[in-house]
Amino acid sequence: MIQKKVLSSSDESSEDEHVEELQDKQKLIQAKANKPTRTSVSAEVYGQFNKKGQYQAKKVNKSEDAIKRIKQRMSQAFMFSALDEHELAIVIDAMEEKKFKAGDFVIKQGDDGDVLYVVDQGQLDCFKVFKKGEPEKHLKVYQPGESFGELALLYNVPRAATIKAKTDAICFSLDRETFNHIVKDAAAKKREKYEEFLSKVELLKDMDPYERLQIADALKVEKFNKKDYIIRQGEQGNTFYFIQKGDCIATKTENGTEKEVYSYKVGDYFGELALIKHEPRAANIVAQSEVIVVYLDSDSFRRLIGPVDEILKRNMSRYEKYVKK
Ligand code: 1OR
C-alpha cells in the first residue's frame, strides 16, 4: 500500500534557470555518452517530469528486514552521501524492493527512465552501444551497494546504457518524484561543485568523465589550519586526500628529528600508500597554510580509484628514496 503526505513545495520562478542548467548538463552528458542531443527537451517536458511542485511523500510498505538492508546499502551508495537523516528517512520510505532473474533486463539503453536502482544482492552487467549499428560494449559489473540509473533522472536524458541481471538479483528502486525532491539537488550540486576541480587533478585527467563524477559523489571535505597535522606517521590510514586549497608538506620523523621530505600543492594527492600497501602511515602531512582537502574513505578509494591504480603504483616511486630503508 502507498500512503501519501504533502511535504514541501519549491520556488517555480527559478524553473527556467534550472531548465537551462539542465539542458547544458544534458548536452555535456550526451557528448560524453556519445549520443545525439535530444531536441524534444523543453521547459514543458522538463516541467512534466521534473517540476518541483508539491511533493507527495511516498511510503512503500516493506518488512523490517528490507528496511535494514536498504539502510545498509544506502550508506554504501555514493549517490546518497549528501543527504541528512531526515532526507534519508524519506528516501528509505519511498524505496521498493525489486527482484530480477538472471538474464532479465533492468534498464534498456534509449528508453525513458523513471527510477534509480541500488543493488542489494547479486550482480548486474552494464552494456552500451556507442555507435548505432555497432555491437554493444561491456562496461562494468554492478555489485551490492552500488547504484545505477541516475543519469536519466539527473539530466532528463534517455537511458545511456543497458543493465541486465548477470545472476538472480535484488535491487531497491527509487521513483523519479522522490529522487527529484530529495536527492537530485544535493547530488547534482555536489557533482557540479567538484567536476571542474577533479578534471584538473593530474591523476584523474584521463579517467572517464562518468567515473570522475562518481568520485565527486563520494567526496567528503575537511578544513585545516596552518601547522595542523592532516596525517600522522605511524597511524593506521583509512583515507585518501586531494588538496583543494593550500599547500602541505610531508615530514618524516627519524631518530627524534622531523625532516621535510616532500611538498604538495593544489590538485596533488596523498595518503595512498597506506591504503595500497596496507601499512601504517609512512609520513606526516602538515598544512603550510589554511588547507581544504577533499577525501575518499578506504572503501570508496578501492571502488573508485581502480581505473588509475596503475598510475598510482607507478607514482609510488616518488617516495622510494624516503620509504626504502
Ligand atoms: P541511466 O539512467 O542512463 C543506464 O541508465 C545506467 O548505466 C546509467 O544511468 C548509469 O547509471 C550506468 N555511461 C553511461 N552510463 C553508465 C556508464 C557510462 N557506466 C554505467 N552507467 N560509461 C561511460 C561510457 C562513455 C561507463 C564508464 C565506465
From TrEMBL:
Residues 79-200, 203-322 form the Cyclic nucleotide-binding domain. GO terms for cellular component: cAMP-dependent protein kinase complex; cytosol. Residues 1-11 have a biased composition (Low complexity). One of its GO terms (molecular function) is protein kinase A catalytic subunit binding. GO terms for biological process: cellular response to stress. Keywords: cAMP, cAMP-binding, Nucleotide-binding, Phosphoprotein, Repeat. InterPro entries: cAMP-dep_PK_reg_su-like, cAMP_dep_PK_reg_su, cNMP-bd_CS, cNMP-bd_dom. It holds the Pfam family cNMP_binding. Residues 1-39 are annotated as: Disordered. Belongs to the cAMP-dependent kinase regulatory chain family. This is cAMP-dependent protein kinase regulatory subunit. It comes from Paramecium pentaurelia.
